[in-house]
UniProtKB/TrEMBL annotation:
Pfam families found in the cross-reference section: Metallophos
UniProt-listed InterPro entries: Calcineurin-like_PHP (IPR004843), Metallo-depent_PP-like (IPR029052), PAP14/16/28/29 (IPR011230)
GO molecular function: hydrolase activity, acting on ester bonds
Protein name listed in UniProt: Metallophosphatase
Domain Calcineurin-like phosphoesterase positions: 31-260
Keywords: Signal
UniProt cross-references to PANTHER family, sorted A to Z: METALLOPHOSPHOESTERASE DOMAIN-CONTAINING PROTEIN, PHOSPHATASE DCR2-RELATED-RELATED
Top-level division of the source organism's lineage: Bacteria
Signal peptide location: 1-18
Highest classification ranks of the organism: Bacteria, Pseudomonadati, Bacteroidota, Bacteroidia, Bacteroidales
GO cellular component, one term: cytoplasm
Length: 334
């Protein structure tokens, strides 16, 4: 009887998720994404209460079409109960959500695969374990369909950026593997072919920034919008993901976390490289002030998006539009 009840619960969860696998633009041709990052949640620890407050406040005010958690959500045992505290805030509002891992999520006696197995049974969860031949757990794609037609209009890429360096003598943090880059190239090419040779407008989400964030800072520091209060803590090896994205021509922006004292956005060779905003409480270092999130809005049929940082309490900072904001800044500089 117990096994039968468990079977029914799993069937129910799968059926609920199946109803929400398809994302689409609303009737106004907009699609809004909220990025929460580095929540570093500790269950029953008072310092984490502000994270729950932020999530509830933002979801009610912004009414997003998708919520993306870009890693380091959980920071202590009990892991599953802590994740439930976070994700249930989204689930009870019936909002689809996605999740990629940071370098800390699996440090509490629960592996990445176990975490993914746990969350993918949750209602409204769109995260996927992805191809097992690739590095990491959670390399997957979500399509955004049109408001009035069942056709792909935008593509969202999600990557597991790993945790710590696989080569002891080479830095501290991991980097995207060659097989992840090749997988992206193949998927992107297939989507472009499907769209008569025109790349779909796309975004990418992962935890650890690319090396190009540092390169952009070095070359365009005076053009960054937002706070840069710590150096970019990426892996030391550059395996070519940025070059692949630039060659493919679909990705307009990448969105990461990891570095708690950065929430900036900049432009590098026509791709916007952005941080989210530290979303947690005082369970880890954070010196930007109020916690917050990043809001991103796509427009159907257009190669554009708008984004800003939203703080606890409702203040909105650093509004940016792709591709206009940095194109205008470049014109002024010339």
């Amino acid at each position: 009887m117990r096994n039968f009840i468990l079977f029914l619960l799993i069937l129910f969860s799968i059926s609920v998720n199946a109803q929400h696998k398809s994302l689409s633009f609303n009737n106004n041709g907009k699609f809004k994404i909220i990025q929460f990052t580095d929540i570093h949640y500790k269950k029953n620890v008072p310092e984490s209460a502000v994270a729950l407050k932020l999530i509830s406040e933002v979801l009610d005010a912004e009414k997003p079409d998708l919520v993306v958690f870009t890693g380091d959500v959980i920071y202590a045992k009990p892991v599953k109960e802590g994740l439930d505290d976070i994700f249930n805030l989204v689930i009870k509002r019936k909002i689809p959500w996605a999740y990629v891992f940071g370098n800390h999520d699996d440090e509490h006696e629960t592996s990445r695969q176990e975490l993914m197995d746990f969350v993918t049974l949750k209602p409204y969860c769109l995260a996927q374990a992805g191809d097992k031949s690739l590095n990491g757990v959670g390399n997957y794609i979500l399509e955004v369909k049109g408001a009035s037609e069942d056709k792909v209009k935008s593509v969202l890429y999600f990557f597991d950026s790993g945790a710590y360096t696989p080569i002891k003598e080479v830095g501290t943090y991991d980097w995207l593997a060659f097989n992840q880059v090749e997988w992206y190239r193949a998927q992107s090419a297939a989507y472009t072919k499907q769209n008569a040779g025109v790349p779909y407008p796309a975004l990418a989400f992962f935890h650890i920034p690319l090396v190009e964030y540092s390169m952009m800072k070095a070359e365009k520091y005076d053009q960054l919008i937002g706070s840069r209060d710590e150096k970019e803590c990426h892996g030391k090896m550059n395996t070519g993901m940025f070059a692949a994205m630039r060659e493919a021509g679909d990705v307009m922006g990448t969105f990461v976390g990891h570095d708690h004292d950065n929430d900036y956005i900049g432009e590098y060779y026509n791709i916007y490289l952005a941080y989210g905003r530290y979303s947690g409480g005082n369970t880890e270092y954070n010196n930007l002030g109020k916690n917050g999130c990043r809001v991103i809005e796509l427009e159907e049929g257009k190669r554009t998006f708008s984004t800003y940082i939203r703080l606890l309490g409702g203040d909105k900072l650093y509004p940016v539009t792709y591709p206009d904001t940095f194109a205008k800044k470049a014109e002024v500089k010339q």
